[in-house]
Each structure stands twice: as structure tokens, then as C-alpha cells.
Amino acid sequence: MEKRFALLIDADNVSAKYIDPILDELSKYGNVTYKRIYGDWTSRQNSSWKEELLTSSITPIQQFSYTAGKNATDSALIIDAMDILYTNTVDGFCIVSSDSDFTKLASRIRESGLTVIGMGENKTPMAFRKACDIFTRLELLEGENEAKEEVKEDAGVKDIDKSTIEDAIVKIITENTNNGRETGLAELGNRLLKLYPDFDVRSYGYSLLSKLLEEFPKIRLLKKGNYVSVKLAEGTNVEEFIRETVRSAGRDGLELGALGQEIHQKFDNFNVQDYGFSQFKKYIRSIGGIEVRKSGSQNMVRYRENG
């Protein structure tokens, strides 16, 4: 049965241009049964939202700003969220805001066993991101990757370093291996989200987790039909043979095709796709300290000059 979600939007802290990407993204998780947006609709600040409400069938909730500095919108959204929670008619919430005021609300909903999906702009504080099961930056949905350069460092909001992600994956695979289990790609993705709710492969320019994993030399993908699993790279076998072969070739290196022939002679069952790559050249380039350069009509494999 498809999961049911309540979509609650803080109009004061999110731009109206994101409404279509928000609805498209949320449709991946289930059916949206509540669609409400909170703000002072007498304010010119929210005028851009008014045109979107009827088109997207979103119910506007009016909250007047009676006192300067007091956010009545937040209070109304929180009260409605708790009312919906107690009806037991949804499986999760999507809270759209760039404000940390909803951190406690997200934590409370999760305590009740429901899923919380957060969506907000780059400026969203880390506290709210961490309180959600999944947090998605709206700039990524809009395709505005250049907005990553505008992240405020004083808010502590940065993309997770790739080396941190790779180390986390190595730990997950190792734990499963020690328990006699293999690691499926889907499980890996779920575990990463539990560790880093704001992890999103789109932050790194990819649409699929498997494509991001191809960048990591410590990890290999194995495909069995439609099932994809992840394992640690065999650093003492094929890659060590490649390094030794390239080293023995000296400064001139050796031609890519010749290297491929030597690998197949040594390892009868070698298949580059077993290592998560569609092209032999990409696989060779993933090996630390080795480079592939064009020399005339040939691709030459050499050790890096600084490696």
C-alpha cells in the first residue's frame, strides 16, 4: 500500500518557485493526502505563492502577524501537524521550511514512528536537517547547483566530503562482512541516509548512487541480474598487478590495450563491470597513482609524476 504524507509548507521561509519540484520529489515517497501552506496572505511578501495555490490544490492557512518578531506561522503549522499526527491517517510528514524552529516538531513526529521528510534551501540549519529522516535541498531539485557556492559557512552548512562518505561505506560493508552478509546497493543507500539525512547524490553531480560509487577506489559494484551489491576492492590482486605492471614499464608506460591483454592473461575471469565500471579506461583511471594520457593515437598508462 502506498504511504500517505502530509505536506506542510512554511511560506515565510521558502520561495514559490520550488512548488513543482517539491511535489515531484514527494511523489517518489507516496501519496500526498494533506497539502497546506502557512503564511500571512495579506503580506506582499507572499504574493508569489498565491498564483500557485489553486494550480497545485494547496490549502492556504492564514496567520496574521500581530506582533513584530513573533512568528505566528510556525505555531499554526506545529499545531496542525500535531492534530494530523493524532488522527493516525498519515504515514509521514513533509515539512518544507528553511527555519530551525521545526526541529523539535520533526523529532516528535519521528518518536511516534512516522517518517519525516524535510525540504529547505541551502541556508537551512543543520539542526533541522539532522532531525529529519531525509532532508533534500530545494536548490538541487531546481537544478541550481551553482547555489552551492552561496552556502553560509558560519551556519555550518556544507556538502559532506566525499572521503567521509567513502569511509562510512567501507565501515558499513565491513560490518556486514563480519556478520556474514553482503551489502546490497539499496541497503547501503538507506544506511547512508540514517547517518547523514541530508546526503543526496545530486549534490555531487550524479542522479544515481551507483554512479557516485564509481569514484571511490576502495569500493566495487557487483551486478547479478537486476540485483546490485557492494564490496570492498581487492587491493592485493588485480590492482596490485596493474601497479606492478605499469611500474615495470618505466617512464614511457604501456599502451592501454596491451595492459588489458596482460590483465586477462593473468586473471581469466576479469570483467571490468564487476568493479562497477562500463569502460576499462575509467577503471584504470580510478586506481590511485596511475594516469591515462593520449599520445598520438594511443592511450598510454603511466605512473603519475607526483605519485
TrEMBL record:
GO terms for molecular function: RNA nuclease activity. CDD domains: LabA_like_C (cd10146), PIN_LabA-like_N_1 (cd11297). Pfam families: NYN, OST-HTH. It comes from the Bacteria. Residues 161-244 form the HTH OST-type domain. PROSITE patterns: HTH_OST. This is NYN domain-containing protein. It comes from Zhenpiania hominis.
